[in-house]
């Protein structure tokens, strides 16, 4: 069906559309023939006047990845510091509120935001890591009764099977992260290095739980810190953009075209 809309374009302004077709929702025929304007932003979307107190701007989807990567990196870097025994800290339970309230929630929300905008790759990784963080933290939450079920009544310490069970779970996540690595071979050095060191961290954490070796635990802490630093690199590569800062760091693209 032919449209009665007329587009007026000025090289120095945004396009303006004048609708005179009642079938298109126009009320021009009710207002003495005066046209109804619909202004389009440079991004191609109708201007939104629902927030009159702020300047009118083009509405678009934001990038949730920097927030997710910052939370991921902070959690892993903090865990690494605890595992290497920074300042003599031997009780790591302070990490669990950070994991749940910062890392877990942010990862899960980002995963679903990415799913909404059609990014299956990021959505899968962040939703899965969000689920891991919640499940891993709940193991140590007293109200869940999991740690208590494995505690020896005489010594008050977890039995060896507890550490074996946690080690197996961490080993499974090393395998899952390896699958993510395969899916990331054409992403960037920043993302790939984050996942590689995360995979190594999971493997060392699993070995430390099962074997009980302090040196392996320290090594796992070091790799957690490296994974966190790589994650910060990935986050800032997407957050430090030319429109907000003069500082940029390249993620080093690995994609190849035909």
TrEMBL record:
Domain of life of the organism encoding this protein: Eukaryota
Polar residues bias spans: 1-17
Annotated keywords: Membrane, Transmembrane, Transmembrane helix
Compartments it resides in: Membrane
One of the record's GO cellular component terms: plasma membrane
Region forming the signal peptide: none
Region (Disordered): 1-33
Keyword Cell membrane among UniProt keywords: no
Topology of this chain in the membrane: Multi-pass membrane protein
Regions that span the bilayer: 65-82, 94-113, 119-141, 162-183, 189-207, 219-240
Molecular function per GO: acetate transmembrane transporter activity
NCBIfam families xrefs: AceTr_1
Family: Belongs to the acetate uptake transporter (AceTr) (TC 2.A.96) family.
Protein name: FUN34 transmembrane protein
Natural source organism: Trichosporon asahii var. asahii (strain CBS 8904) (Yeast)
């Amino acid at each position: 069906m032919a449209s009665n809309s007329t587009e007026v374009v000025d090289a120095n302004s945004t396009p303006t559309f004048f609708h005179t077709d009642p079938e298109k929702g126009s009320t021009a025929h009710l207002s003495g023939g005066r046209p109804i304007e619909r202004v389009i932003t440079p991004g191609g979307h109708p201007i939104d006047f629902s927030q009159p107190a702020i300047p009118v701007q083009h509405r678009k989807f934001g990038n949730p990845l920097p927030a997710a990567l910052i939370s991921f990196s902070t959690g892993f870097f903090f865990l690494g510091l605890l595992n290497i025994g920074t300042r003599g800290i031997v009780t790591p339970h302070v990490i669990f509120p950070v994991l749940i309230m910062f890392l877990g929630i942010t990862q899960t929300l980002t995963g679903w935001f990415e799913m909404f905008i059609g990014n299956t790759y990021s959505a899968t990784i962040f939703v899965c890591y969000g689920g891991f963080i919640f499940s891993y933290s709940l193991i140590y939450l007293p109200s869940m009764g999991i740690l208590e079920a494995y505690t020896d009544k005489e010594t008050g310490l977890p039995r060896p099977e507890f550490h074996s069970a946690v080690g197996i779970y961490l080993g499974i996540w090393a395998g899952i992260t390896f699958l993510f690595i395969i899916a990331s071979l054409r992403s960037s050095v920043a993302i790939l290095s984050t996942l590689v060191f995360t995979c190594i961290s999971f493997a060392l954490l699993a070995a430390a739980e099962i074997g009980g070796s302090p040196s392996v635990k320290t090594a796992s802490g070091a790799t957690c810190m490296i994974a966190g630093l790589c994650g910060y690199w990935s986050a800032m590569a997407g957050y430090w953009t030319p429109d907000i800062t003069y500082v940029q760091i390249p993620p080093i693209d690995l994609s190849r075209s035909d």
